[in-house]
Amino acid sequence: MELRVGRVVNAEPFPEARRPAYILHVDFGEEVGIRKSSAQITEHYQPGELTGRLVVGVVNFPRKQIGPLMSECLITGFHDESGKVVLCIPDGEVPLGTRLA
């Protein structure tokens, strides 16, 4: 599993998803590029506050069709006490595309 740091460059509602979700466009740096993902994080985040945030994503899973979206990576997170997802994020600035050590 290849986990890398990326920066959300765009986040938008994903109304076609079965469960509430956003479409995230994440820049993982020059080697990987920008990838799209569906993220069920609507309980804790609004699209406008996600843009510019660093996230951790799995970039070497096969692509997966989610409704009309071809998801190209998996953004990581943890379930809170009520089962809602909170993002897994770096505690400081690191270069885009950096692999988890």
Q: What does this 3D model show about the protein?
A:
This protein is mostly beta strands and 101 residues long. It has one domain: Nucleic acid-binding proteins (OB fold (Dihydrolipoamide Acetyltransferase, E2P), Beta Barrel). The chain is 4% helix and 42% strand. The chain is built from 1 helix and 9 strands. It has a 5-stranded antiparallel beta sheet. It has a two-stranded antiparallel ribbon with strand order 5-6. A two-stranded antiparallel ribbon has the order 8-9. A hairpin with a 6-residue loop joins strand 2 and strand 3 (34-39). The longest helix is centred in the middle third of the chain and has 4 residues, at 47-50. The protein is globular and about 30 Å long.
Summarize the structure.
The chain has 101 residues and is mainly β.
Entry keywords:
single chain; 101 residues; mainly beta; OB fold (Dihydrolipoamide Acetyltransferase, E2P); five-stranded antiparallel beta sheet; two-stranded antiparallel sheet; 1 helix; 4% helix
Structural shape: globular
Unreliable parts: none
Our count of helices gives 1
Span between termini: 12 Å
The first-level CATH class name: Mainly Beta
What is the total number of structural domains? 1
Radius of gyration: 13 Å
